[in-house]
Amino acid sequence: GAPPYWLLRHSVVMCLLLHSLVLMTFCFHHAATSCSKSCYCSESESGGKTVRCSNLQLTEIPQDIPNDTQRIYLDFNLFTTVPTNAFAGLPHLVELDLSHNELSQLEAGAFRGLGPSLQFLDLSSNKLVNFNAEAFEGLRARANLTNNPWHCDCNLQMALPRVDLEPASLTGIVCQTSDPEEIGVQGLAFLLEPDIDLCVVMKRTTDVAMLVVMFGWFTMVISYLVYYVRANQEDARRHLEYLKSLPSRQGKSEESSTISTVV
């Protein structure tokens, strides 16, 4: 006879669930492994994915880069900034090329999440002026920082020890301008000039400020001492006058007593 109604209903439900599971798996796989729009993707023999988005006139970092990507080429575009968490969700990325763009700003945490995997970062031939150590937090990669109009000042000098990039990478910071100008580092790789102190002006300013503060306190102390001495002198004079007046008052009291007795 015909199968029971409950068995038929159960079979239909199971088929729908299985179909939904297959569809969800396909969607997730597509999201994880598909290529970024307008970019070209290729797979290496080892299974690593390379995404090439070079020379596409892009103005913003793509947000649909597959999370199994190992190499990204974003060179020769029109990026002006790398925002915070721009490459989050790419745990396998080993190489990132951002060279030949219009980059003038790297926001704090721009490369956050890439520390454990990234081996090479190319930021050459951009418009980077100020070095932001917070943008490179956690990175231990080798970086190409050449051909940027770097401004070398005390902020740069204090920022360099705070980054964990491969030390040789920092030799790519060649000073185009400096503060103070007369210190003479233009055209030099700052890391290779250990005797140059770009914080000397700030230190001098700090020393002058400390001297001014100390002089102010010294003036206040002297003023207080002068006031204290003068006040005490006035009190002493009044007390002395009071003491001098005591005998005369005592003599007048005795004369008053004698007159009273005679009367």
Characterize the structure shown.
- This protein has 263 residues and is of the alpha/beta class.
- It has two domains: 34-193, Leucine-rich repeat, LRR (right-handed beta-alpha superhelix), CATH 3.80.10.10; 198-237.
- It contains three helices and ten strands.
- The strands form three sheets. Strands 1-2-3-5-7-8 form a six-stranded mixed beta sheet, with no helix packed on it.
- The longest helix has 63 residues, at 200-262.
- The chain starts with a helix and ends with a helix.
- Mean pLDDT is 80; it is low at 24-32, 203-209 and 258-263.
> What is the H level of CATH, i.e. the homologous superfamily of the largest domain?
Ribonuclease Inhibitor
Give the tally of structural domains. 2
- Tell me the CATH topology of the largest domain: Leucine-rich repeat, LRR (right-handed beta-alpha superhelix)
CA(first)-CA(last) distance? 157 Å
Average pLDDT metric: 80
The overall strand count is: 10
> Are there runs of 5+ residues with pLDDT below 50, and where?
24-32, 203-209, 258-263
Organism: Seriola lalandi dorsalis
InterPro entries: Leu-rich_rpt, Leu-rich_rpt_typical-subtyp, LRR_dom_sf, LRRNT
Keywords: Leucine-rich repeat, Repeat, Signal
Protein name: Leucine rich repeat containing 3Ca
Defining key terms:
single chain, 263 residues, alpha/beta, Leucine-rich repeat, LRR (right-handed beta-alpha superhelix), 6-stranded mixed beta sheet, two-stranded parallel sheet, 3 helices, 10 strands, 13% strand, disordered C terminus
